[in-house]
Amino acid sequence: MRSVLLTGFAFCAAVFAQNAAVDKFVTTQYPISKAGVLANIGPSGSKSSGAKAGVVIASPSRSDPDYLFTWARDSGLVLKTVIDLYTRGEDNSLRTTIDQYVASQAIQQRVSNPSGSISTGGLGEPKFNIDLSAFTGGWGRPQRDGPALRATALIAYGNWLVAHSNSSYAKSTLWPIIKLDLDYVASTWNLTGFDLWEEVNSSSYFTSAVQHRALREGAAFATKIGQTSVVSRYNTQAANVLCFMQSYWNPTAGYMTSNTGGGRSGKDANTALASVHTFDPAAGCDPVTFQPCSDKALSSLKVYVDSFRSIYAINSGIPSSAAVATGRYSEDVYYGGNPWYLTTTIVAEQLYDALYVWKQQRSLTVTSTSLAFFQQLVPSAAIGTYPSTSATFTTLTNAVKNYADGFLAIVAKYTPSNGALAEQYTRAAGVPISARDLTWSYAASLTAFSARKGIVPNSWGAKGVVVPKVCGTEGGGTVQVTFKVDATTVYGENIFLTGSLPSLQNWSPDTALPLSSDNYPTWSITVSLPASQNFEYKFIRKYNSAITWESDPNRLQTTPASGTYTFYDTWR
User: Fold this and answer.
1) Locate the CBM20 domain: which residues (predicted)?
2) Is 571 within any annotated ligand binding site?
3) Whose CA, among 339, 424, 453, 545, lies 20 to 30 Å from 522?
């Protein structure tokens, strides 16, 4: 009995010590992280020399690696953090920074770049030079999460402006930027693109999730400011994205697969980031929108975290019930494949968000899907719903809180004494590596600190959404499009067409559309396609049972808003 009591006292002492250490870290790191964010925003940020006003640099690192660029995704996430600080009344001095960002994005959207112009796919360009000129080097493009994240940030600002009697600015200045982004999202969400790590070209859960959110809240914001003509389309496409999001779930292994391609396991910080950045405190523990406390999100988080327990030396000897350092994905080899500050932080933030909801709804439910997550922390956990007045609720929530604090304790352990947050810390010794003063690392720490305090973002409309009974990938009217391709063939060989739309057979070579050879060597077919729709396609050859695809990349086109159109191509 004495040994049991001593063990219990030792455990309680360890928990108390960890909580106290995390309290201290949050208190000291918060102002450092906030200053780190602002230092990387032009023109007056101390580490953003050369950046135009409102431009967010990824890092002041100019070599090994060179991150002195501005990314649409990183900037959207960072400014959402800044906007939340301002609209919550935590720092009224941030208004100028926000307005400068707005002005910079109005310019950036119109910069022609390797992904296209403003009307031909250029909004999917991932990064620009910090003077807002186009970056023309080789890169993983397009990336389709940036427009959605920028729209979400500006909608948050717009909602605050409307609530504070400034609808005119919201409508005249913000809305044109937001609408361009949402129109792009509505037209291209069903096309492939590079993931948030810029490595895999496929569909990506993070991208789909933030696109769904942007369209859903975009429709509500449009209604609020009287721009109702777009509402039906945005809502329709939001429902279609939500339907598509369900296809990422791996029910056998119990996690949300990060990408539909790439040849990896799919266990990736991608999905935890998606859960946090689409958190809606009014949506409860909804699994459809992958809310942080949903059984699917908790199960997926466990699978993701566990994938790092045995591969990093700094995680050696840590029990399975305790926090560990986490990276992007276990197969990572970038800079040797290390834990990242922001990916370790995001685990804590998801758990803090979950705790907030459980306490607000005064209950916690353990399902067969989330049981393994809870049993990892409390072995006696069982399936059931536990009210906040029960001892089980207290035991489980305390365990989750301690587990969440453990991830911040890991970050604290490997943060240098000056509080500077790089991109990564080494898997062997926890030493900062790769880009220094990463803006996203600083912003991620700020949002996690707020979540720990019970400060949560505003609702964006996830409550009560349902997956449509019939899911689609297209919306709006249709147009007649003729495809013509010059291709010489041998006798018995034929040309077919397939692509990214259901009307183009969703890339299926088996059901690809046959072209006519009436005007050989020009082959042609006329197809009814959705209007104002970006899409990808390729021609294929079929000869007996052999199928030959055109060479990469996929062809990309946009259908007209009305009428008819002809695309002319040559086999490659």
Assistant:
1) 473-572
2) no
3) 545
